[in-house]
Amino acid sequence: MFLSFINISPRNCRKIWEKESSVMARSSARIIKNPFMSLTPSPRSLTQLFSVSPPLTSLFSSKKTSPSPSLSIFILSFLFSFTFLGISIFRFFPSSQDSIHCSIISPTTSPISSHPLPSSYSQIILTSLLAGINSDNKIQPRIGGTAMVPLPVHLVSGNLSEEETEFWKQPDSNGYRPCLDSTIGYRKRSAKISKEKNRFLVVVAAGGLNQQKNQIIDAVVIARILEAALVLPVLQVNMIWEDESEFPDIFDVEHFKKTLRADVRVVSSLPSSHLVAKQTIVTQIPYGVSPFWIRAKFFKQLNQEGVLVLKGLDSKLSKNLPSDLQKLRCKVAFHALRFSKPILQVGNQLARRMWIEGPYISLHLRLEKDVWVRTGCRTGLGPKYDQIITQIQKTQPQYLTGRVNMSYSQRRLSGLCPLNAFEIARLLKALGAPQSGRFYIAGGEAFGGSKALEPLAAVFPNLVRKEMLARDGELSPFLNSSSALSAIDYIVSFNSDIFIPSHGGNMGRALQGHRAYMGHRKSIRPNKRTMLPFFEDSSISDEEFSSIIRSLHNKSMKPEPRKKQRDNDVIAYPVPECMCRHGSGIF
């Protein structure tokens, strides 16, 4: 673990930069190798880093050779260097939490931000930097332990306005780090539950990708409550997006099983002894049920029948659970539910292509046709487009999930409508986003096509989508899977310097919590209910408007403890159940 404490002098920093810039000349920021790596270097990586070169191997060979003067000098030089390295390691061991004193930007490029990285990133960056110096000139993604580690935030400096400097500034983590230690009682029960072979839980997960993820998380927790083995969740065919993806298409099955093996036994299918001609499917479950309710309702039935099939779990399990179960939720969300290797490979490649050009903001824009239909909101594109949405709502009223007893204006001012491109542009400008900033646009195809994005592109022209980043054929395997494309958006957004969703939604909440869990990377949640009245007030000057908007969003940029309310999920707010100041650290 001593890699994290090796000091890098300014002279060596320049050498490292000159070496790397010859490989990635187009980069406007310092390239850091191995972006997805373990917070604790693996023995294998240490072995690779300090691999013995052929000349050095010969020193330990049993073959006798007469030592030459040059060889003796080489040996003495090696011993002296090794001793000096050891002294340096012990010298810097106590100051492991110090911030990095090595700029990771090109000395010749125009910098963008001067805010230093939070101290929690110091070990990550140093380890990654040192591990990549002698690599094969390729940026290879890695997964750290069981959790995906994001690319480091950019360290850049320059002639910025006060607003721009504040915009790029990352929040202070306040010392919070992941801690998923379970109680002794939980661990004792795990010995039996993880070997369960008589009771099996089958769960059918519906909806979009992140809605399905929420149900899978709750499925694991319910299996634990019922002391049952979990059959690999079934992903229901999505009728809106016509997506027929199955669990192995989206997630890494073996990783899912391995990560949860101490908590719940996960099997790929029901054993033949439990296959019956007719199975009872439970669909009527109230919202916010407790673990006690789950056991009282299903444990006896599960014991008798051996199989329980649940469907429609979305938001049915209470958000307020005992500590061990809250930690299990985080373990599933941030560790076990890793995307499949093909999705990870493409997602990582696109993320690196965005990241290598400098800092970027990910905007999750909910401008798809189905979003406007479901919310009952206006598109902001004019009467022609609004009429199309209204007609669909009349012919297919089952898709309308917005509050039907409210007018459009009431829905909008209540924060129930997605921000359109014009509103997003005003928000970004008020927050201090530079017009030259680079924006990754996550989300499906906008209703209205390029016209829908014109108000945003007019102010912030550097808009990039995955289709623009991808090379020929990279996205082809996923074109018929909205879940896979959403997963790719998730990966690129996860690695961004700043993430901003235009609407709450499952993906926005999932990324907010995941980014907080992996280092409190900046996420800005638009406070629509409070800020939209100021959008309508023409008497407010631009300067005053910007000041109001920034003040309304200061709180959302800092580690925010979860409030025990019905809709506050530990997945979106991992502090304090899954993160602590004095815990055992990263899982």
From TrEMBL:
It comes from the Eukaryota. Coiled coil: none annotated. GO terms for cellular component: cytoplasm; membrane. It is found in: Membrane. Pathway: Glycan metabolism. GO terms for biological process: fucose metabolic process. It is a single-pass type II membrane protein. The chain crosses the membrane at residues 71-93. Pfam families: O-FucT. GO terms for molecular function: glycosyltransferase activity. Keywords: Carbohydrate metabolism, Fucose metabolism, Glycoprotein, Glycosyltransferase, Membrane, Signal-anchor, Transferase, Transmembrane, Transmembrane helix. Belongs to the glycosyltransferase GT106 family. PANTHER family: O-FUCOSYLTRANSFERASE 37, OS02G0726500 PROTEIN-RELATED. This is O-fucosyltransferase family protein. It comes from Gossypium tomentosum (Hawaiian cotton).
